[in-house]
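Quick one: co-fold with zinc ion.
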Amino acid sequence: MKKRIVVSISAGLLLATSFVSAEDTLPLNAVNRANEVIDAALEAYGGAEAISNLNSVARKSHFTTWATNQSRSPGPPWDENEQMSFSAIDFENETFVGKNKGSGGGFDFNGSQIIKGEEGWQVSYRAGTVTPIAEPDFNNTSGPFIRVTAPLLVKQLQSRRQTSHWLGEVEFDGRTHDVITLVMEVGPALSLYFDQETHLLSRSERVLPPFGQVDYRFTNYETVDGIPFSKTFKLYVNDQPNVFIDIKSTMVNQSLEKYTAIPKTLEMVEAAPPAPTDVEVQEIKEGVFLVGGGNTYAMFVEMDNHIIAVGGTAGIPERIKALREVVKDKPIKYGVMTHHHNDHVLGVPAYQAEDAMVLTVKEHEAVMRAAATDADSLKLQFVEDKYVFDDGDRKLEVIDFGPTPHAKHILMAWLPEEGILFEADHFPNPTNGQMAPAQPVTKRMAEVIKEKGLDVKIIVGAHSPRIASIDDLRKALALSPVQVAQNKH
Ligand SMILES: [Zn+2]
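Sure, here it is.
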């Protein structure tokens, strides 16, 4: 699974711009010009007083998102998903509420994040649980909402004008714009484009590693309580549509109290402890190893004279290194790539460096070659439904579980003698073993297990250090998404 782009990722790279202007060489001038642009923007947004008095904003919106490199099939057009969202911020009380309901990639979500000063909670309406947030971070959590709300960016400019520089003039959408920088509390600097006639914000952009160029467009302005808000918003990543937002309602300067209340019907639970970040080797059964740390794991299986690696998430070279502490000499002859998503093909160069044959489906060939160090010399073995390794002692089957709601083709590794199944992105397995109601992907995985008559005893996955039992899967399947009384917005 990929984190949504709207989740803020802190990074310190400044936007490299190509705006050059002769008078721009003096930093003082750049600061003065920025101040002029900010003052004009403040006027356009209802006046400096209205912006400094703008303490709370609550907006209900409809999101359309595109699953770039995370769709069911490789390559565009990307799968389009919908979600309803409610976001509210109160600066004085350092309160933020972000609520999202929707689905994507075979996962349903319905939850909210509430930050109230020093306290914070993660609410899952789907699981019926509330989890306290250990270290609530108002600035970090509210950043994505501020970045898509023009008057809040102007409010940031007002209080952080000393960080702002004028970068130059540029034609955008057939109109002349002044471009100035904004450095927020968290994240890379933004370049803000103000229309020279209306003094309204049309665009902002920043460079966000590892995604690239993120481009925000503010359109369709409407005045709410004397302040212009853009009613539609578009976000592009590397010029491809990523999120379009359609605002349904905007409220300003109202108390957020009713939105921060936690329904009494929800169960308060402890957060699952984070997985150890150091790479660890767990021997599940003799010669079968789950190796990983943090959010990424691979399985290595010892055959008579070689090793089969399964999974291609981040950090495969470190995982191979850790494996070498226990299995010293056998070569890794095969690397099984579960699917084509960009966070699951990072291991291709590592397997190529081991001179291993990479197993995938024919439909994912282009993605695998593109991920390789040398596309042409990558050794590929295509799996059609099933590919069986059998050395007389041990059997390993690579099975295409697709189509599932996550991917049209998804390879899983099955050890029939041991009853071990390795999966990716189909079975959330929290470190504390607290199962949530089965997601659509999990239900499909369970159906395939049944259809193929696999006597599964143990399930391990690409994103968890925990060795799950078949009972964990049964538990998840038995839980149904909770429908609880929610605050209606
Ligand atoms: Zn995936």
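If it helps, The chain has ten helices and 27 strands.
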